[in-house]
Amino acid sequence: MLSAEAVHADEAATDALTTVKTRFDLQKHYLGDLHRYVSSFIVHSGEAEDVTMEALNAAFEQFDRLRNKDNPKLWLLGIARRKVVNHFRRSRREFPLEEADGMLRSGPSETRAYVHEILRRLPVLQREALILKYAIGLSQAEVGALLKKSPAATNSLLQRARARFIELDAETLANGENS
Amino acid sequence: MKTSTDKEVRIAELLEAAAIAPSAALRDKAESRAFALDTAPRKRKGWKLAVIAAFALLVAALFLSPKAYAAMVLSRAGKALDGVETCTLTFRDLRSGNVVLREYFDRGLWRFERPGSEISIYREGKMWTYRPDVNLVSTKAQDSPFAKGFDGFKLSNLLDQMHGSLENVDIEGGGQLNGRDVLRVSILNAPVQEKMILTVDKSTDLPLHMDAQKPIQGGWRTEETVDFSYNMPLPEKLFQPDFPKTAVDEDTAKANLARDFTHVLATLDDGHPNPIQIRQLVMNDRGHIFLAFTGSMGLMSRRLWIEGDNGVEYLRGQLGLGGSISDAFTPTDVFVDRKRIHLQWWIPSRGDAALPKGLAIRTAGSRDVETAKVEVPLSGQRVRSIPRYFPLLSASIKDDLDVRLEEAQKQMGYAMTLIIEDDGKRRRISDNAGVPCFVSSGPGFKHDPDDVAFALKQADIALNLCDQVAARDATGMDSIKAGIQFDRYEILRYLGRTAEAQEALSEAKRMSPESHFEQQEGWTF
Question: For A137, which residue in chain B has the nearest alpha carbon?
Fold first, then answer.
């Protein structure tokens, strides 16, 4: 279980910088985060993995030109962000959660579907900010940098996102939809 | 009451519990690809780099650095824009050659026009949006006219709309545009692989034109442009939310819609406290089924499947009826008896069977075990193409073209997943997540020639429909066509029609270079 201290400790900085010298290092350290980010938007597990691999391939191609190899997380998430948008454009598909039920059998599907239902009802930018902050573990400043928002705007976005998430969580529990 | 920290802990816990790890297959794929690239021999670029470096030194010695100069030009352009009173922006999609958006600005008032789609007006903290296709007006209080929270008319806003940023700027060159001396400044957004070229008037510092480019093999391709015109008087009525008197308010439309779903046609009683209740079942002339129901569907490991009494299996259409990645009006907003309405669109797996007179609808729990079943007769009433609420709920389904395109793609995919077993029976292949996938290229799989021919026919139909959709919407469909071409490539390769297959693959790569089809070639099984 996460403690309050653990959450606050994340405010100032994210994980220790990990220098990646090779593409092998890159996928070793960041595949999990990349996949987590992508699969928070694409429920279908196979498609999420395809898009993750697509983002990773694009990152591999640009790797030699990457200057700051000390902290490539933001760069990598930026690529993934574009790939997710491309995926939705390409498939002209939105967020078929009901259909996704049958596709989530391999994981802790009830909790995952429950959380996805809440995330799905959040405005996209709020959803993305929460994922980046609490699932990927970016600092507030990094979330702002990725979403191209000022510190004040990022703070306000995260506040609104948290409040809405908790509201939807309570509402869903009250409706007994997670029973 | 929850404190801010409680909220953070709850959110972090839930997101943690819901996370899934990449599969072993993905890890293997990533590792082997990384290893192959890390150990591949590199091209020798030493002499080229040396020439470039020498040239850069020469330029730097003679002038201010181009990057610094570019930053200065942009900074001056930003200041010049701050002084603009009115502006008209015209966005064009070069792939179709059509105007996709017009924006009008007049001292804090905004009007956005998407030809053939919608008109929005922003003034005094409110945004009105009118959709002529459904004659619907929505009104929202907003701090800013832009969804991303911009305020005012700033250069950064314009760039962000085109997915750019003010990082990595450079001077691309100079010249003339419409008789005016201009400078061209490039703004590279490396993480998302996009580049903006801003053409700035040297005498006024104002941007006159912008190109949004994407990388293609060996260069960049302009996909969208923006043209600016400034300080022309704009009629006041442009910024008045005067829509047709017959236009319906969004909340009223939702209430009307909910009334259509009050009657329960059948209940799938699987013991769940919030069972699935079928509220409406409509068929169109093509045999597609439109299903409205209430019940807790999304939060349990339940799914529906549908079969017609003609023996045809139905496939879920995937356009538009789930929650949306955009903030559009979605069916999750519509409630009846305080229960959320779910809408689903089902497509027959084959289009040549007689239309069914009734349907068997089943629920399945985990591991696909049937938990409940109802048989529902279909009334004689049919819609021609789509029920009237579809365009209301999803801007991505406009008319019969969208329905036919989805049908062709779905039926093609379905036919490709059918294999013939040793006993001669047809069986549908699924991957390990239980999801149908493409198997035409797999070793050892035999397909019925009729299924393969049907899949190829549907691919051709889908390509033709893509062209029609592109003409209707005045937008490009390249990425979708590229996906279909890649499917054609797989089918043709299975048939041994190598030359045609290669042609389809080249076409897919040409239309969507960023899709990296060459990397997918070995991925299907």
Answer: B12
Q: How far apart are CA B181 and CA B175, in angstroms?
A: 6
| Cα A102 from chain centroid (whole Å) | 22
Q: Are B193 and A82 in contact (CB under 8 A)?
A: yes
**Pairwise CB contact (< 8 Å): A115 & B25:** no
| CB of B280 closer than 8 Å to CB of B260 | yes
CB B494 within 8 A of CB B445: no
pLDDT band at A100 (very low <50, low <70, confident <90, very high): very low
- Amino acid at site B123: R
Chain B residues lying within 8 Å of A120, measured CB to CB:
322-323, 332
Q: How many helices (H) and strands (E) does chain A have?
A: 9, 0
Residue B264, CB-side half-sphere exposure with 13 Å CA sphere: 13
Q: What are phi and psi of B356, to 5 degrees?
A: -75, 160
Pair B433, B373: CB distance under 8 Å: no
Tens-digit pLDDT profile for residues A137-151: 888 888 887 777 777
pLDDT at B390 (0 to 100)? 60
A53: nearest CB among B30, B149, B344: B30
Q: How far apart are CA B57 and CA B173, in angstroms?
A: 18
User: Would you give the DSSP letter of residue B434?
Assistant: S
User: What's the pLDDT band for B83 if we cut at 50, 70, 90?
Assistant: confident
Please write the tens of the pLDDT for every residue from B176-223.
898 889 999 998 876 566 788 999 998 898 999 999 888 777 788 888
- Measured in residues, chain B has a length of 525
8 Å CB contact of B323 and A90: no
Cα separation, B186 vs B74, in Å, equals 10
Residue B11 · residue A162 · CB < 8 Å: yes
CB contact under 8 Å between A178 and B191, yes or no, is: no
* Residue B230 identity (one-letter amino acid): Y
Write the CB contacts of A40 (distance below 8 Å, at least 6 apart in sequence). A119, A127, A131, A135
Residue B104's nearest CA partner among B125, B90, B117, B118 is B90
**Cα B375 to the chain's mean position, in Å?**
35
What pTM, to 2 d.p., does this model score? Answer: 0.53
